[in-house]
Structures are given as structure tokens and as C-alpha cells.
Design brief:
The complex is a heterodimer of chains A (about 220) and B (about 70). In chain A, about 75% of the residues lie in helices and about 0% in strands. Chain A is mainly alpha-helical. The chains are: A mainly alpha (about 220), B mainly alpha (about 70). The interface between A and B is medium-sized, with 23 and 24 residues.
Amino acid sequence: MHSVWKIVCVLLLFYTVIAGFLLPVPALPILNETIRNLYFHVTMWFAMIIHMAISIIYSIKYLSGSQLRNDLKAEQYAITGMMFGVAGLITGMIWAKFTWGAFWVNDVKLNGVAAAMLMYAAYFILRNSADDDTKRARLSAVYLVFAFPLMMAFIYILPRMTDSLHPGNGGNPAFGKYDLDNHMRMVFYPAIIAWTLLGLWITSIRIRIKNLWNETNL
Amino acid sequence: MERNKLISLFVLLALLPSVSMADVEMADTLRSDGKIYVVVTVLCIVLAVILIYLFSIDRKVKRMEDRFKNK
């Protein structure tokens, strides 16, 4: 029997799609209806950050206990996080094209995200370059301990120290420039939970397949 | 007289944002025509198919795990 959280995930996803399109949103110039991208584009990044955070937790767990199953989990969560990152990047480019005028603008947040994604790409390359299991696990865990805080700096700290086209960046941001509207908040927060749960679900299946694979090959 | 002009200018300036806000183009007609529901329905079906697929993968992995444990 499937666990309750999977059912919750399904319900919240349907709620996100239905309420995300049908509930009223503030009428703002330039943005128009694209403001609804908040439920689909911004939530991708939230889901990515949550997955990367779980991945770094498992990396630290590996470093403190040297159990290979923690390394396996760290990798799988990072893969799903990367998937959300790619989705967020592509959806963001489309949104930028129709509101800021170009697929890629020279914005600190965009360039920071690109650098962060490259750092995670390097993580996967690093993993494949080591032959020995324990060596791979230790190297990549140490690498992540540095890469994750750098990614947070690139995505959250640097854009706030300079100017960014993204709302809530530059100077001292209040989080809810968009979601000050209560209707949007009613969809936005459940949407974050929904996409994150979907990612956790996919990751759990990946981990189980990987475990089966490892067990049958022993 | 000057003062009145000044006041009316301020009133006009205060009203400007609300006027421009009303002009923002939203998908209101689409919604009143009922067509947005078509999009929502299509998206829900896409979502349903993907989720059913995910559930079936989940079940398959479960079966494999069970078979492995029995061996």
C-alpha cells in the first residue's frame, strides 16, 4: 500500500494546477497572467534547494559514519535537485523572454544559478572519475560540503548585495513582494510542498532501484 | 485658483495608478468564455497520466524488492 504522503502529493499537485489557473491574481502591468508562473517556475527552485539541502545532509552523514548508503542517497537527491534546477532554468528563460525581453539577461541571479548548476555538473563528473567506492564517496561528499554553501551564496546572497531583476533582490528584501496577495499565498505554499513531495517520491524510487541494483550485483 | 489647480493635479496623480491598473490585460474574457477550463482539464489529464505512470513504476519496484527478499 502506498503511503499517505504520496496521496497528499497527488492531491496537492492537482490543487496547484486547478487553483493555480483559476484563482484570481493581481493584475500587474508587464506580468499580466504570467504572474501564475510563481506556482510553477519559482516552486521549481524551492524544490531544488530542498533536495540539495537533503543531499548535503546525507553527505555530512557519510563523512561522519562512512556508510555507503548515505553516499548513494546524497547522489540521488542531488540528481533530482538538478532535474528541478534544469526545469527552473528553462521555465525561467521562457518567462524572461516575455517579461524582460530576452531569454538570458545579464542578471546576477541568472549568472549565479548558471555557475551553481555547473558546480553540480562537476560533482557528477567527479563521482564518475573515481573508481573506488569509498574514495568516490569521500571525495564527492567533501566537494559537496564546499559546493552547497557556494550555491546558496550565488543564488541568495550575491543577488541581494547588488541589483537583480528578480523581485526581492537588491538591498534589503522582503520575501513577499508577489505573494503579499493572499490568494497567491494560498496556492504558492501548497505548490512548493506538492513539487517537493513529487521530487522526494521520484528520489525514493531511484534509491530503491539503486539498492536493488547493488544487491543483485554483489 | 492656483491652489485648486494644484489640488486637482494631485488628485489626478493619485488616480493614475488605479487607472493604469484597470487597463492591464488579463485573461478575463478567456475565463468568462469558459475556455480556461479546457486548459485546466488538459493539464489535469497530463498530470494524472504522469502520476499513474509513477505509481506503476513504484509498484514494479516493490514487486522486485519482494521477489529479491524471498530469494
